[in-house]
Amino acid sequence: MTRIQIELVSEFKGEPVVLVAMDGDGLDVVRGSLALSKVGQLQTIVVGAITIAFSTEASSSSIDIRPSKVTLQLAPRKIDEIIEKLDAMRASPGPCHHYVGIDAPTETLVLAKDEYLT
User: Fold this and answer.
1) Which single residue of 24, 64, 89, 91 could bond 71 by disulfide (Cβ 3.0 to 4.6 Å)?
2) Residue ranges per domain, the chain?
């Protein structure tokens, strides 16, 4: 079963963050959706009761988190950075995470593989 959780965490190692926690399959789904959104294809996936939409935004990178829908609007350069970090996480044999700077709703996005899943 593919697992992807996206949430706003008010206190993560001393700061508010957007946490994207995934298992290995979830990481592959997120990476593929980001790659397709970068070339202009609006991507939407459904995981459990949550719809996750990926789109390309010209210059800013933000994540809108609502109870049943999460929208990731990311600049192409940010998509490249996230894909690079997801690839490094995929190569890691164990749980790991990376930090990415974003514009809203916090300054930090945490990508986690096999960590922080509830």
Assistant:
1) 64
2) 4-113
Cα-based torsion angle of the residue sequence 18, 22, 81, 66 in order, rounded to the nearest 10 degrees: -40
Residue 35 tokens, joined: 């790659």
CATH number, domain 4-113, options 3.30.1360.120, 1.10.10.60, 1.10.287.1490, 3.30.1360.230:
3.30.1360.230
Q: What is the pLDDT of residue 38?
A: 86
Question: 10-residue block means of pLDDT along the chain (118 residues)?
Answer: 94 96 97 91 90 90 95 95 98 97 97 96
Question: Phi/psi at 36 (nearest 5 deg)?
Answer: -70, -35
Cα–Cα dist 93/38, whole Å: 27
Report pTM.
0.94
For tokens 């609502």, the residue is: 66
CB contact set of 78 (below 8 Å; sequence gap of 6+): 61, 100, 102
